[in-house]
């Protein structure tokens, strides 16, 4: 039982972890901030506004030691949500454990062999959903392979990869796509380990036994339960037939769950509580396909960062189910059910067909590089949005049953979520500069750090397993940004396909419907201006959750706009330069990481300095109303949050913003 947690600083997160463990948590699930996840130190230009926002910043061994102070790592089970820099964070974790062992007067090697936990380490889904990749797919798969082969021998209780279908569902995946793409990722990883020559054939079953999965559970809990039974069936077949694993225990499908966040609503957020409970039932009702670990979001996640009390509420849900209900006392409740068996068979057949399609393209890496999987997810998400907007998919409190009594939980929105101190980034930047300065002021320590980075560079070039060099970097006080910079020099940078150009979107519409009406508004405004309306959709900073931006871009294209969308991880300066170069009529900024108050004003300032201050800016994201008011006061034309789910309405609003900025008379807005 865990809650996904971490923010501000190592010391603040350590205090939170110790409080949560005292409340009955049985493991830790560490959230790292975006600079840490993508391999940047807090003082890097791309880290602006992102330090400590969605997780804890870990820049070096000193931070890792502080994060787990007074928490004996030998006794802990720690899940670390980290992918591109997974090898580096595990190296820091191991060295922190060695230091704890030495302080206790015990054998560090024994502590290391006792370490239990998980590094997420699934880079494929980063190119498809979360966007926290750092290197191209090929070198990234090499890092995964090196980490797996190291841990199987040296940290045998560690789960070196946690293949994540969770984020695929968040990006719009259907149950069939979620199963198929997760299994295709597992095939790519296991094939790479087998073909690397680092693991003898007879040891491959021990690798398979350490593979775990991290799945999503949506509110359609019967379908989700059947999905998990399909996962179990497919994994057993795949590991037996493709990899020759004869031990049933080694073929066991081991998975943890974070229930669905995509379906949580800002409107009537109290409804999220029952959604979370239903989603938890989907992965616990069936004993033969039951989750090993569950972590639940908080009811107010669509509003902002949950407070400790909100996290406690989610933990108590699990404890009530486990200790008060009788759910865990019986054998599987669905064995022999013709309804369940039919649904499972349907999901298995669909997943096998999609897996065969991916394999025919050359496997998961090739399907990422071609943009196939990304485009498929963007299209599925567009269809999901269409069904909600059309009322075909009911979301209580959002598109039906919208009347509500005043909500005491959100009466004071400024206290209904947790905020990160604005000085966190400054303190972290000063601290990492001081760390490097103190280290380099000592000739011996400076020389050791330089030698460690040179060894990392040489091993990256030669093909040597990189774990040993990474451990030496950790011991030599190298920083996260320095470690990643060396590998970026060797492996190069990478920008994943956005999936927007290849996505189908909503496409056709009926005369007189909302999309058709918006198209008329766009066309008429373009005629009055004498040019086609152009908008730029930009994602500044390190926030890689691009689903919203992609859906806006696809719908804007369907509505008749010319759309400029360059993907994730842009500086405000790059967004301004693109807006000026493309001579756009509107700039739309999407931020879900909480960095809107730092990055949006930089875009506004940059446009003014570039002589484009008359180009209106709209912003979308998880933005508290007090922040939205401040953004509007700073010059933002409109702010959209998760409650604004009608994309056609948003398109109509954007036309109105463009007309106002260009001095044109208002037109009738699109029908709701």
Structure description:
With 672 residues, the protein is α/β, with parallel strands linked by helices. It has 26 helices and 14 strands. Strands 1-2-3-4-5 form a 5-stranded parallel beta sheet, with helices on one face. A 5-stranded parallel beta sheet has the order 11-10-12-13-14, sandwiched between helices. A 4-stranded parallel beta sheet has the order 6-7-8-9. Helix 1 runs parallel beside helix 3. The chain is globular, with a radius of gyration of 25 Å.
Key features?
672 residues, 51% helix, globular, alpha/beta, 26 helices, single chain
Overall strand count? 14
Radius of gyration: 25 Å
Helix content: 40-55%
Strand content: 5-15%
The global form is: globular
- pLDDT averaged residue by residue: 92
Distance between the termini: 42 Å
Adjacency order of strands in the biggest sheet: 1-2-3-4-5
**Global structural class:** alpha/beta
Pfam families: B12-binding, MM_CoA_mutase
Keywords: Cobalamin, Cobalt, Isomerase, Metal-binding
Cofactor: adenosylcob(III)alamin
Protein name: Protein meaA
């Amino acid at each position: 039982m865990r809650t996904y947690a971490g923010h501000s600083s190592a010391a603040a997160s350590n205090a939170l972890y110790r409080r949560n463990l005292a409340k009955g948590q049985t493991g830790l699930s560490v959230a790292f901030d975006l600079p840490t996840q993508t391999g940047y130190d807090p003082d890097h230009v791309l880290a602006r506004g992102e330090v400590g926002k969605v997780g804890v910043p870990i820049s070096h061994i000193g931070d890792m030691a502080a994060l787990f102070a007074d928490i004996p790592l030998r006794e802990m089970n720690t899940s670390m949500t980290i992918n591109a820099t997974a090898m580096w964070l595990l190296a820091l974790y191991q060295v922190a454990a060695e230091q704890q062992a030495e302080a206790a007067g015990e054998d560090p090697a024994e502590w290391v062999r006792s370490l239990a936990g998980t590094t997420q380490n699934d880079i494929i889904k980063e190119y498809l959903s979360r966007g926290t990749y750092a290197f191209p797919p090929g070198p990234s798969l090499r890092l995964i392979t090196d980490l797996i082969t190291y841990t199987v021998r040296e940290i045998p209780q560690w789960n070196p990869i946690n293949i994540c279908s969770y984020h695929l569902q968040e990006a719009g995946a259907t149950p069939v796509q979620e199963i198929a793409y997760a299994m295709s990722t597992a095939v790519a990883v296991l094939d790479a380990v087998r073909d690397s020559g680092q693991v003898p054939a007879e040891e491959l079953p021990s690798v398979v036994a350490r593979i775990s999965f991290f799945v999503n559970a949506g509110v359609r809990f019967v379908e989700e339960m059947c999905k998990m039974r399909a996962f179990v069936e497919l994994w057993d077949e795949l590991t037996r037939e493709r990899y020759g694993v004869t031990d049933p225990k080694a073929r066991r499908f081991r998975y943890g769950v974070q229930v669905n966040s995509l379906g949580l609503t800002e409107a009537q957020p109290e409804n999220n509580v029952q959604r979370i409970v239903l989603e938890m039932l989907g992965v616990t009702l069936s004993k033969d396909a039951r989750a090993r670990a569950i972590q639940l979001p908080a009811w107010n996640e669509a509003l902002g960062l949950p407070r400790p009390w909100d996290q406690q509420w989610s933990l108590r849900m699990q404890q009530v189910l486990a200790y008060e209900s009788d759910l865990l006392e019986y054998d599987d409740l669905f064995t022999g059910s013709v309804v369940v068996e039919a649904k499972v068979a349907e999901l298995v057949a669909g997943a096998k067909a999609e897996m065969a399609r991916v394999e025919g393209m050359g496997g998961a890496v090739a399907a990422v590089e071609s943009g196939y999987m990304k485009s498929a997810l963007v299209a599925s998400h567009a269809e999901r949005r269409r069904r909600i907007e059309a009322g075909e998919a009911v979301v209580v409190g959002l598109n039906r049953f919208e009347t509500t009594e005043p909500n005491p939980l959100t009466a004071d929105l400024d206290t209904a979520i947790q905020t990160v101190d604005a000085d966190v980034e400054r303190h972290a930047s000063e601290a990492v500069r001081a760390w490097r300065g103190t280290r380099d002021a000592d000739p011996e320590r400076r020389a050791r750090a330089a030698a460690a980075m040179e060894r990392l560079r040489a091993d990256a070039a030669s093909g040597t397993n990189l774990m040993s060099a990474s451990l030496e970097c950790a011991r030599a006080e190298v920083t996260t940004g320095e470690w990643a910079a060396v590998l970026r020099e060797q492996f190069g940078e990478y920008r994943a396909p956005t999936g927007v150009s290849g996505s189908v979107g909503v496409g056709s519409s009926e005369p007189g419907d909302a999309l058709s009406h918006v198209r008329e508004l766009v066309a008429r405004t373009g005629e009055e201006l004498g040019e086609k309306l152009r908008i730029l959709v930009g994602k500044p900073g390190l926030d890689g959750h691009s689903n919203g931006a992609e859906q806006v871009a696809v719908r804007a294209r369907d509505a008749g706009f010319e759309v400029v969308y360059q993907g994730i991880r842009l500086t405000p300066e790059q967004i301004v330069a693109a807006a000026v170069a493309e001579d756009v009529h509107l700039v739309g900024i999407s931020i879900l990481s909480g960095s809107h108050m730092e990055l949006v004003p930089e875009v506004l300032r940059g446009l003014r300095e570039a002589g484009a201050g008359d180009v209106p800016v709209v912003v979308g994201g998880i933005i508290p109303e007090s922040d939205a008011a401040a953004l509007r006061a700073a010059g933002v034309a409109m702010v959209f949050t998760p409650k604004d789910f009608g994309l056609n309405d948003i398109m109509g609003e954007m036309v109105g913003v463009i007309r106002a900025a260009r001095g044109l008379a208002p037109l009738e807005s699109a029908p709701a």
